[in-house]
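Design job #97: recover the sequence.
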């Protein structure tokens, strides 16, 4: 939340600096100052509205910027304004985009850590990408008895920065969609695969793994284990496929990965990742990891 507020204030400050620069330039030339001469009529107003909309519109700047550009090009007057202020407008928009995406480096707050899970085994992930910023806790859930050697779960709780939007609307779904589009899950998942390799007799080569999305529901209802409240979370389900255990270019299924994400304000999203090997009893009995996620969401 605070990171989104800081980024918004920096964007408004950037707009104010543009206005200050052009005002001083006009004064030095003994000219009347008109803010419409910076990037065209209503340009400053549109930029301020755009900053406000980052707190309202799903997908944030990814949706807002193309729409504002399209609206500015629809009318003949708008197209003429673009011809007159093209260079300055490009610089102006780029300066705001730099501020928005620089906000992705602001450290994320601590991830959710349910009391029922105890102290995390790991609180860092050396394989995590530098951008966007994120924090991560990792647990190894071992079976209560040593009878079932596949009854092991690796659970990761993440808090990730999503600098392109500050609204809670659609923040979880957009984060999962972009992570899938740019294959961002794989780097953070490497640590979980290595832990799974250590705890089970199965072979898991973290460098030779493929994630293949399973067609399933996009949302799943989890019941808070403490309050009984229903929470509908965005989910993504993947097959974990080993490329070294099969000649098939799609690899051999050696486990499943469930990602469940919760919407949050201010350019952050909470995600829980559950990694289970093939043969784990919960893959049939509790495929959406309700026993774990219901504790996490509480």
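Job complete. Output follows.
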């Amino acid at each position: 939340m605070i990171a989104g507020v800081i980024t918004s204030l920096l964007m408004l400050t950037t707009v104010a600096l543009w206005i200050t620069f052009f005002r001083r330039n006009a004064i030095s030339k003994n000219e009347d100052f008109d803010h419409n001469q910076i990037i065209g009529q209503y340009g400053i107003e549109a930029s301020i509205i755009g900053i406000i909309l980052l707190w309202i519109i799903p997908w944030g700047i990814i949706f807002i910027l193309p729409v504002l550009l399209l609206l500015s090009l629809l009318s003949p007057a708008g197209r003429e304004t673009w011809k007159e202020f093209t260079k300055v407008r490009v610089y102006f928009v780029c300066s705001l985009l730099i501020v928005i995406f620089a906000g992705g480096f602001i450290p994320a707050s601590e991830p959710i850590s349910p009391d029922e899970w105890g102290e995390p085994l790991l609180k860092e992930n050396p394989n995590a990408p530098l951008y966007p910023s994120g924090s991560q806790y990792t647990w190894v859930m071992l079976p209560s008895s040593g009878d079932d050697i596949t009854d092991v779960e690796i659970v990761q709780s993440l808090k990730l920065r999503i600098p392109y939007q500050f609204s809670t609307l659609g923040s979880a779904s957009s984060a999962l969609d972009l992570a899938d589009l740019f294959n961002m899950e794989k780097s953070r998942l490497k640590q979980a695969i290595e832990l799974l390799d250590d705890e089970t007799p199965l072979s898991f080569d973290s460098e030779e793994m493929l994630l293949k999305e399973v067609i399933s529901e996009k949302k799943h209802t989890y019941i808070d284990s403490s309050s009984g409240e229903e929470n509908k979370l965005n989910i993504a389900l993947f097959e974990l496929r080993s490329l070294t255990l099969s000649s098939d270019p799609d690899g051999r299924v050696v486990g499943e990965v469930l990602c469940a994400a919760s919407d949050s304000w201010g350019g952050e999203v909470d995600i829980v990742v559950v990694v289970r090997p093939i043969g784990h009893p919960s893959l049939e009995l509790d495929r959406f990891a309700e026993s774990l996620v219901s504790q996490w969401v509480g």
